[in-house]
What we know:
Radius of gyration: 19 Å
Order of helices and strands: HHEHEHEHEHHEHHEHEHH
Largest sheet: 7 strands, parallel
Number of helices: 12
Strand content: 5-15%
CATH topology: TIM Barrel
Shape: globular
Structural class: alpha/beta
Amino acid sequence: MNKMKGRNNLVIPDFNQSPCIDKVGVEERVARFQxxxxxxxxKMQGLKMALNMIDLTTLEGKDTPGKVKQMCYKAQHLHDxxxxxxxxxxxxxYPSMVGVAAxxxxxxxxxxxxxxxxFPSGQAPLAxxxxxxxxxxxxxxxxxxxxxxxxxxxxxxxxFVFDEIxxxxxxxxxxxxxxxxxxxxxxxxxxxxxxxxxxxxxxxDFIKTSTGKISPAATMQVTYTMLEAIRDFKLKTGIxxxxxxxxxxxxSKLALHNLVMxxxxxxxxxxxxxxxxxxxxxxxxxxxxQIMKAETGVYQxxxxxxxx
Length: 308
């Protein structure tokens, strides 16, 4: 492994020696996070925090400039009846829609993220992936969400995966790089930990569970495994890495459980959208419903909230 160049000239470990994960231990730890009692005031704070950590996303073949503009409006005005709400963290689109999104959220503080590297499969030559990324950055992307080559990873070609991430990082410029592991295809928590380590040493600014196209996606067991990898990396290198669970987090209760898990694993300093995100567009409406219930005493119909 010493032929590879890591970020900040780090000594690159042998990824074949990544820690083995105690699956039973992880499940027991996650179960405890889900039993934490959250008081009313803390719950409201957590709900607003979760809203501000969401990456609203549209990644469909039928995406149009009009649909992207509508999503960008929602990102900045989550519920016009309640003007005091925060914005979401970012909007996430395909590279072809980055220019539209960048114009629509200009000056709002909402970031523009773009998927890249032949999302969601990753099945393309490196030259295509680099061009994909360069185009998105040139169009105004603040963040790049790339996918790793899962076939190469599962074949044990860890050097290939590392070098590809490092190459994408190099062309990101000032854009932050989120590396999607697609954990549903990695099968085991041991693989999730190994892929997390590879991504962080290769230059990831965030590690992300999933594309949202594969099930299972962001289970709490997977997210906890990745949070532990981030904690260990920070202890070894002093470098802070962000985390983005994506896919399957559709309700407020699960979002709050995740925030508890982040706080108890990494600490409060990770509880900002600079270091933690939810890739879950449908989560926004459930959080909004919970906030309105807490403030008015009644649930509003889902019809009061736009889907995009």
